[in-house]
Amino acid sequence: xxxxxxxxxxxxxxxxxxxxxxxxxxxxxxxxxxxxxxxxxxxxxxxxxxxxxxxxxxxxxxxxxxxxxxxxxxxxxxxxxxxxxxxxxxxxxxxxxxxxxxxxxxxxxxxxxxxxxxxxxxxxxxxxxxxxxxxxxxxxxxxxxxxxxxxxxxxxxxxxxxxxxxxxxxxxxxxxxxxxxxxxxxxxxxxxxxxxxxxxxxxxxxxxxxxxxxxxxxxxxxxxxxxxxxxxxxxxxxxxxxxxxxxxxxxxxxxxxxxxxxxxxxxxxxxxxxxxxxxxxxxxxxxxxxxxxxxxxxxxxxxxxxxxxxxxxxxxxxxxxxxxxxxxxxxxxxxxxxx
Length: 339
Prior knowledge:
By secondary structure, this protein is α/β, with parallel strands linked by helices. It has helices at residues 7-14, 18-26, 33-46, 53-63, 73-77, 79-95, 107-112, 117-121, 135-142, 167-180, 196-211, 229-238, 251-263, 281-285, 297-313; strands spanning 66-72, 99-105, 126-130, 148-151, 161-165, 186-189, 221-222, 245-248, 273-278, 291-295, 321-324, 326-329.
């Protein structure tokens, strides 16, 4: 006669408490989604008969939720930054027993405000929007009524939760680092119209000057810098004086700035210090390696999924903007200012 499988048998197999098994199988709170899925899988494997079919159906329904990750073709192409966030999102969505659908948005769809095909072809329970496309396009998505969380983007016109880097404080810390090394003539390099993040990093730059009772030179504020060497060369050609340090809004500009300075005979950091933002691959392969502000991209994705899961259960709560901290990583590109 075959012995009946009990909750204790499942608990012994997984080395967890019987109470945890009970919570997982009944759909009650108290265990993580990962544990819940593991317990259910083990119960099925061992032939355990579920005692509460109503709650089990609720759990099954929850596991079948469909999540859409939407971004522009350009954002998906930035694998060293958004690629890491995407992988984190995928991992977290799978761990919660949900399906993830990916939808890149091309220029025609953006200009025509065309809804992604998956929103009409699939039953989507929640949307994650990676970076920005246009305010009108994102508004069109939000207006579907499907719970939406924005990743690394926000706007006063977009009524949706946002997961953001604390750009102001991060830039403040970077520029403070340069000021504490004795630098007073610090250039800002970045296109503040390209992204709210870059505008906020410019505000952090100005905040650091204000904190230390300093006035930044207008000539040193290159606020429409594109990521190409020609723009950096043109900026240097316009300068009457030379900044002793540069703060660049991302690693691409930090890398290009360092390269152009070296082409012109400047030594980094002996003549000019360079500091940037994001701690991507370019800051790490540069010679010298560039001081930068680190963003935990893995946590970015995890927090976004966590917030979307909460929003799907709390649709009428006020919207949240969640700021994630940055960390200064000091490398060889910054040094004390020489008199």
